[in-house]
Amino acid sequence: MRIRGLYGIVDPSHGDPLAQARLLAEEGVSPVQLRCKDWTREGRRALAIACRDLGPELIVNDDAALALELGLLAHLGDEDGAALGPHGRSTHTLAQVTAARDALYIGFGPVFGTASKDTPWSPRGVALLREAVARAPCPVVAIGGIGLDNIDEVRASGAQGWAVIGAIWRSRDPRAAIRALR
To answer: pLDDT-based confidence at 1, cuts 50/70/90?
Structure first.
């Protein structure tokens, strides 16, 4: 798995996830995470199958069994159980970062405040992100509140990737936002 730059996330709370995946693919963003938390397994399966030929490496959020079934990667949080195959792992503390030895990559955050996800975690900040990058046993994807106003700080932290939801899908021109964030 190659993590470098913008890590795309499709989210149905911001519109049609298949259209979002197509736009990310057209702009050369890879990987792309399919984040459809409230969908049924059948709905997530159908979306993943529809997105398979778009080009980017696909990641299924929160469902290791479905990812394994479809030959895709999974992205797992604390509550998602053990990995059944190749996966990324959500982390929020330095202890979680160093414990993620079996992950292909880790997501670290929220770096800044975010409206895309209810989280009990306060913003971690760029200094802690920098420390996470230094300690991580694998590539780090920064997540949480990242946009054009703070992307330079995130890049300077050494994080290999940055996941962005709101700054793209709430933008009047998502294509232009993707290009600016790449």
So the answer is: confident
pTM for the whole thing? 0.93
The DSSP bridge partners found for residue 105 are 88
**DSSP state for residue 77 in the 8-state scheme:** -
Tens of pLDDT along 56-74?
Answer: 999 999 999 999 999 999 9
As beta bridge partners, residue 34 has 10, 60
Considering Cα of 121, then 73, then 157, then 137, what sign does the dihedral take? Answer: positive
Q: DSSP letters of 110-126?
A: -SS--SSS--SPPP-HH
Domain boundaries, the chain: 5-181
Say how many C-beta atoms besides its own lie within 10 A of residue 70's C-beta: 17
CA–CA dist 31, 12 (Å, integer) = 17
Q: Regarding the domain delimited by 5-181, which CATH topology (the fold level of the hierarchy) does it fall under?
A: TIM Barrel (3.20.20)
